[in-house]
């Protein structure tokens, strides 16, 4: 007790990125398991396109996402990325879905990198 008041301690420090706060509104389980079973694939793609990149990547790569085969998951990821690209307009980042060999099978990996743009310099002489 300090100055007659009880001392409150933080029991939890935020160690995740700021985007993780959005996941607190909707639990991971809801977005990965429940929602995909309740909505159509186009509606799910629209919902996933609005997530921050880190969450989108985590959910699409999750083994718990109930999308049939790896090929279907890959097609779904590409569809979401196309929606995200259209919504972002001109962005400095480029997102892609990749089929990768992993262990005995294949997995979908979502990547993001900085676009390599052309820099034009004006030379006066």
Structural class estimated from helices and strands? alpha+beta
Overall pLDDT, averaged? 78
* N-to-C SSE string, H for helix and E for strand: HHHHHEE
As a percent range, the share of helical residues equals 40-55%
- How far from one another are the termini? 74 Å
The major beta sheet can be summarized as: 2 strands, antiparallel
Q: Please, how many helices? A: 5
CA-based shape: globular
Number of strands: 2
Radius of gyration: 20 Å
Spatial sequence of strands, sheet with the most strands: 1-2
Instruction: Determine the strand fraction and express it as a percent band.
Output: 15-25%
Which helices and strands, and how do they pair?
Elements: H1 20-25, H2 28-38, H3 41-49, H4 53-61, H5 70-88, E1 93-102, E2 105-114
Antiparallel strand pairs: 1-2
Helix pairs in contact: 3-5
